Amino acid sequence: MLSVLCALCLGRYPLSPLRVARVFGSLLHLSPASDPVAQVVVMQARLPRILAALLVGSALSCGGATYQAVFRNPLVSPDLLGVLSGAAFGAALSIVSGGSAVMVQMGAFGGGLLAVGTGLLISRTLPGGGILTLLLGGLIGNAIFTALLSLVKYLADPMDQLPAIVNWLLGSLAPSGWQELAWMSGPLIVLTVALVLCAPVLDVLSLGDDEARSLGVSVRVMRPALIVLATLACAMTISMAGIIGWIGLLVPHVARLLAGAEHRSMMPVTALLGAAGLVLADTCARSLTTGEVPLGIVTQLFGALAFVLVLRRLRSGVA
Amino acid sequence: MTLLSCRNLGFRQPLGNAPVLEGIDLSLEKGELVGLLGLNGAGKSTLLRLLMGFLTPSVGDVFLEGRSLRERSASAIARHLAYVPQSHVATFPYTVRRMVELGRVPYSGLTGRLSLEDRLAVDAALERMGLAGFADRPVTELSGGERQRVVLARAIAQDAQGLLLDEPMTGLDYGYQLRLMALLADLAREGRLVMLTSHRPEELYVRASRVLVLDHGRIDADGPPQDVVTAQRMSALYGVPLTQTDHAGNRFFHHGRDET
User: Fold this and answer.
1) Is B17 on the interface with A (CB under 8 A)?
2) Residue B225: inside a domain
């Protein structure tokens, strides 16, 4: 709540909390509409962007927590199986082929899923069938799409398309408007809620294959299902906001410090923290300088620094 | 009454040439404490994992109360069989209580709340393993032996008629090894099937009601410990000369030939 309020007030055109409140008041016909400037800033520029940050932040964080539990590794982030490189390739391809903004988004979403799907398919052909084969499959898929991305970058027009690709890769919520929110919010909310509801399964899956199976959980069904859910969520956030690093890795750790390791209690906290964290990061991104720092840079920088603090607390045995 | 059985059971790795196990015929009864001896790589863990349904046999079938494991759901198997792995790797700092509560998942379902019965089972298991005072500690802070107790408490809370343990004594201090074997004997006496793999024939001689020897993927011996755990057989199995001394219900093995 606090971070949303800050985000509404701060920016290149600072507004007092009172003016923001008046805008909402006039919307609800509680007070006369007397402040058109504030109205435009809040309703057209800031609010959709804040809502997008809330959705993207919570989806990315829950996706990250899910990946960490499924792969039994707290240092895993949602791009483990190549969703990022795939999405980057898809988006870059759309940019090079002169697609519209919507095409770029579709490209990113499709590319992300394609990369993870490729990785999963490759892992199916490998003998074994545990976490390690999944990881190896993901690694190979990741490598393929990283190479393809490089190829697209190499072929892109260096004056015009290459900067567009680089800019997109840095991640930003700037293009988020009401129209985008309208068709992205539904699936994102459903996916995030589904991930939060699946939290108790994560406790069992994180014990390892044999132990999970001995407790009656079908690892063969549950693990791919959860990976697909988390990957869909991440691919949607990428298509909406580009590549936003560190949120998916860091937020689950902070949530575990606050709410304990049990996923049933930490998952809702993860969703809330991720939402608040990304709103704050986005507010920083658009207010720290007169221009706008790409959001991906802000989360990367602050995320890395915050991770040092989290790891220090973990190592000192607090969690 | 037979809990688990298998006929002509065989297993080979997907790309391996030599079978890991072949021609295994077994009938395991409730109330038995079965010890499984064998060299490293003889297929002991593979046999346990086949009996648990973690692996699908290449040949033959495993039957749980007469019905093939292939026809049973994972949760139905989990209500009959509990499993204690060789070592539990604690990735996330769950509390001891939460770990033991997971033993009730086969009953409560994954998202279901714990019933009163579930809570009582969890409390009883914590109490029995001497973990009541540890209940709120994170498992990541526990020693290997304490963690083993947590996993065992989870298996007890699971309230299964069969308990399969993969080398449960690895890494435990001597006192706890002895207490663990006494506990397993108690669990068997209460009517459960308890089966463990082990590298300690002397311990099995005292506690087990039946000992199996697995050699090169086949069952080499199967019978009461007095007949199976003998100096002659153990010498042949482990490839070291052994002599035995029986004393007050114990059998001790000494390295080297009997000079007398």
Assistant:
1) no
2) yes
User: Taking CB atoms and an 8 Å cutoff, what residues of chain B touch A72?
Assistant: 89, 91
CA distance B57 to chain A (A): 15
B150 located within any domain: yes
Using CA atoms, how far residue B208 sits from A78, A302, B170, B181, B232, in Å, is 48, 59, 18, 9, 19
pLDDT tens by residue, A64-114: 999 999 998 888 888 788 888 899 999 999 988 887 888 888 898 999 899
Q: What is d(CA A234, CA A212) in angstroms, rounded to the nearest whole number?
A: 25
Q: Domain total for chain B?
A: 1
Q: Which residue has the tokens 């007050």?
A: B248
User: Does any domain span residue B39?
Assistant: yes
Q: Which amino acid is at B148?
A: Q
Shared domain for A139 and A23, answered yes or no, is: no
CB contact under 8 A, B78 and A214: yes
In a domain, A294, yes or no: no
- The answer, for A261 touching chain B at a CB cutoff of 8 Å, is yes
- Name the packing angle between helices A247-259 and A263-287 (round to 10°): 130
Bridging pattern class, strands B81-84 and B67-68: unpaired
Global confidence as pTM:
0.89
State which amino acid sits at residue B168. P
